[in-house]
Amino acid sequence: MALSEKQKMLSGALYDASDPELVADRTHAQQVMRAYNATIDAEVTVRHSLLDQLIGSYGTPCELRAPFYVDYGRNIHLGRGVFMNFGCVLLDVCEIRIGDGTEIGPYVQILTADHPRDPAARASGREFGRPITIGAQVWIGGGAIILPGVTIGDGATIGAGAIVTRDVPAGATVAGNPARPITTGPTGTAS
Known about the structure:
With 191 residues, this protein is of the alpha/beta class. It has helices at residues 5-11, 20-37, 44-54, 119-123, and strands at 15-16, 57-58, 63-64, 68-70, 76-78, 83-84, 88-91, 96-98, 103-104, 109-111, 113-114, 126-129, 132-134, 139-140, 145-146, 151-152, 157-158, 163-164, 173-175, 180-181. The chain has a single domain (5-181), classed as Hexapeptide repeat proteins (UDP N-Acetylglucosamine Acyltransferase, domain 1), CATH 2.160.10.
C-alpha cells in the first residue's frame, strides 16, 4: 500500500507539500495560530484552549509568548515548564520534541523542513524533513537557528544567534556559525 503524502512527510521521505490533506492541516494551524497570536499573556485559559487545538502535546505550565509560528503544530511536543519568547518559528514537518524546563529566547527558529540538494530534485517541488529533539533544561539564546535532524542534550546552552548544524551533547555550551563548543569561566561567561 502506498504511503500518503502526510505519512511520507512524517517519516522523513520526500513528499509533496501541495497535497490537499497537508494544505488543509496547514490552513487549520494558521487559523488557530492567528487566534493565539491575538491573545495577551493574561488570557491563560484562552491560550490553553487554542494550544489544545494546535500543539501535539504540552505540559503545564507552559508559556509560549505571542506571536509564534508553526507549519502544522500537531508534530510539536513540549515538556512541562517550556518557555518560548516572542517570535519563535517551529517548522514541524517532522516531530519537534522539547524537554521539561527548556527556555527559548526570542526569534529562535527550529526547522525540521529541508529540501533536496540536487537542483533537479528541488525543482520537482518535493521536500523532506528530519526530526529535532531538544532535551530538558536547555537554554537557547535569542535568534538561534536549529537545523533539521539535530539533537540537543539535557542542560545544554545554545548561544544567541548560533546556527546549530549538528548534535550538541548534554551540558555543552555552543555558539557561532556553525555552532561550536565554547569554554566558560567560573561565572559561566564565555572565555
